[in-house]
Amino acid sequence: xxxxxxxxxxxxxxxxxxxxxxxxxxxxxxxxxxxxxxxxxxxxxxxxxxxxxxxxxxxxxxxxxxxxxxxxxxxxxxxxxxxxxxxxxxxxxxxxxxxxxxxxxxxxxxxxxxxxxxxxxxxxxxxxxxxxxxxxxxxxxxxxxxxxxxxxxxxxxxxxxxxxxxxxxxxxxxxxxxxxxxxxxxxxxxxxxxxxxxxxxxxxxxxxxxxxxxxxxxxxxxxxxxxxxxxxxxxxxxxxxxxxxxxxxxxxxxxxxxxxxxxxxxxxxxxxxxxxxxxxxxxxxxxxxxxxxxxxxxxxxxxxxxxxxxxxxxxxxxxxxxxxxxxxxxxxxxxxxxxxxxxxxxxxxxxxxxxxxxxxxxxxxxxxxxxxxxxxxxxxxxxxxxxxxxxxxxxxxxxxxxxxxxxxxxxxxxxxxxxxx
Length: 421
Description:
Layout lengths: L15 H20 L3 E2 L5 E3 H7 L5 H6 L1 E4 L5 E4 L4 H10 L8 E10 L11 E10 L4 H17 L7 E6 L3 H17 L6 H9 L13 H5 L10 H17 L4 E2 L13 E6 L8 E7 L3 H4 L7 E7 H9 L10 E5 L2 H17 L5 E3 L6 H10 L4 E5 L1 H6 L1 E6 L7 E4 L3 H8 L1
Parallel strand pairs: 1-5, 7-8, 12-13, 12-14
Antiparallel strand pairs: 2-4, 3-4, 5-6, 6-11, 7-9, 9-10, 10-11, 14-15, 15-16
Helix pairs in contact: 1-5, 1-11, 5-9
């Protein structure tokens, strides 16, 4: 007997019971994107490897350890996208979307990183991303955060999440701060873990993001970026905070918050939770004003965020009971009912708004069909047998309520459905 083929480690199936939460989340994301006037862009899964090496940074964990990279048949180096922003910028430059234009865009889909799989972190994972181009002020920063907060409000999740903010300042400010960090951590080199020692020469700001408990005291005593922050960045950040205060959005300023991608500068933010263990960030973003120029375009201000859909679904599953998609099940008793039932079901689907009707197929006893009806999650069982066909009626049994069974004329089904749905 052939051996079963299993899914690749870290690339999981999303089964129907969980999928109802995904659909709920997706519908919410679509509504919010439309409410803010953002347009969808669809991007390829595969890009040239150089796109991510140049944008994310060659010294980042993503590029060094986590990307799925391979040579295709032409010898070109290709990579499954590990994040969405670089590809979105590439598309905007390639198709001239940024030339003297403002763009508000969104996308979603799978991303790929070769990490150790755990709850909330998979090798194929899904993100919803929002990107805004051509607007340099704190007003668009505020809008982006408002948008993320609106999503959380609609999902009834904001009360359990914390918004953390920081400013990474200008390139000059970060360069000065980098020198201070290198000097500080070099003086404590023997206390650093292996990963932090490697980052010390490549990307010292990432040491601040370490989750290793043995060096948290050392990190807490490190110099603060706020001590190097330039005046323009400080004023920008202060105005953003004023806008958030006016809107009633609570936040914490976290001077240790950095992002794992080299292109970020200025504002960075995260929505975090304590309910998912180590995977605390469910939505992260900030400014990346240098990225368009870095990828060959003209200097263009840009800001955005990415939302981890698996982590959002995990939070929803602990709070939300969603109804099954099927709300009625048609039981067919006898050959004539089996022949006419499918046609009648098509008529009802056309005429009864909101009807999600599953028809029994494949035969089965009356008792087994009732079991299938109950398992479907439907509220109603419509029963069609010889007696119903002769009298042009349908028997209706309430599967989730203690109510007497009804006999409804087929001609009155539209009226019945309007009163019961």
